[in-house]
Design brief:
The protein contains 1 helix and 17 strands. The chain is an alpha/beta fold and 225 residues long. It folds into 2 domains: 42 residues; 165 residues, no CATH class. Strands 1, 2, 4, 5, 7, 9, 11, 12, 14, 15 and 16 form an 11-stranded mixed beta sheet that branches. It is globular and about 45 Å long. The chain starts with a helix and ends with a strand.
Length: 225
């Protein structure tokens, strides 16, 4: 009986050792996992928003989508000018602004505005920007706008405006191909949406002389009220 009791005691002690080891290993794993998550959170890049202060020596801005972008050299992870995140962003020193990464989930101007009066603003192929939505206004005003990706100007209840002296849709010199599926698409939708002086209810062939619209073969404009 003593042997049996002793054997049971040894067995229970062995189980306790196993559980204790597993518990502390689990804690160690949790600590490592938490540290990893914290490190990931720390690597989040700087977003260009209404509360941003562009450094005085920066004349070129690029939206990179990279977590390493910290804004100090003009590189930002995303463009997110939203209602409530700060005042409208206006800057006269920036001469070149490029969206090089991200879709309309990441690059948005809603309930806010961006004015870069001396800038050439580029929406690269494979990227996208949304200005305004169904309930919030939005405004983008630049010197020259080059759209090789997608631009959505959407609003029915609030003003959605994109303004530029010259707007280039697509790639200069590109020829139309009926089989093309990857058009640079500009969508202007809603009774209060406009691009340049071209409103969503206008005929796409009728442009005002105050804005020059150049439409190339790899681009299309979708207008709907």
């Amino acid at each position: 009986m003593k042997q049996t009791k002793s054997a049971l005691t040894m067995l229970l002690n062995a189980y306790r050792a196993v559980y204790k080891s597993a518990y502390f290993k689990g804690l160690a794993s949790a600590v490592v996992l938490t540290a990893g998550l914290a490190a990931g959170a720390a690597q989040a890049g700087t977003v260009l928003s209404g509360g941003s202060s562009i450094p005085s020596d920066v004349t070129t801005i690029q939206i990179t989508g990279e977590a390493s972008a910290d804004g100090t050299s003009g590189e930002y992870q995303w463009l997110q000018l939203k209602s409530g995140d700060g005042s409208a962003l206006t800057n006269a020193q920036v001469t070149d602004f490029t969206i090089a990464s991200g879709d309309t989930s990441w690059n948005v101007i809603t309930g806010n505005s961006l004015t870069l009066e001396n800038a050439t603003f580029n929406i690269n192929d494979g990227t996208a920007l949304k200005v305004a939505d169904d309930t919030q206004s939005g405004s983008l005003s630049v010197k020259t706008l080059n759209i090789q990706g997608d631009l959505s100007v959407l609003s029915s209840s609030a003003a959605a405006q994109v303004k530029a002296t010259t707007i280039n849709y697509g790639t200069s010199g590109a020829q139309y191909d009926a089989e093309r599926t990857d058009f640079a698409t500009t969508t202007v939708s809603g009774s209060n949406a406009s691009i340049g002086t071209l409103a969503s209810t206008d005929d796409a062939e009728e442009y005002s002389t105050s804005t020059i619209h150049n439409v190339y073969g790899d681009a299309k404009i979708d207008l709907s009220s």
